[in-house]
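Hey, I'm writing a tutorial for new members on how sequence and structure tokens pair up, and I'd like a real worked example in the thread rather than a made-up one. If someone can provide the structure for the chain below, I'll link this post from the tutorial.
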Amino acid sequence: MDWKNNFKKGKEIILATSSKDSIANANIVISLGFVDNKLLVADCQMTNTIKNLKENPNICVIGGYIRLKGTVEIFSSGKYFDLCVKENKDYDVKNAILISAKEVFDLDKVKKIF
């Protein structure tokens, strides 16, 4: 099975972040899938998540039994922001969160896969 299926468009995923003071935060969001080989998520109401990511760009994302660790770029305009707006007609998009995978781990098989 391709691990990216756990993060395909429309899937609920969990984002975990930490502030510069090591205060953890987690949110359930809807994935927008992979764009340019990076995972895209829309920020519509994630005040603490965005605050944490601006202080500390490291993120952990859980999709099914797959854990992805990576770094983020935050966009308030441009290509990725426009894609988020297009996919979120019912919500006001504040930012696009683009996640670059640095490590992927299969929690079920207890092994690193990327």
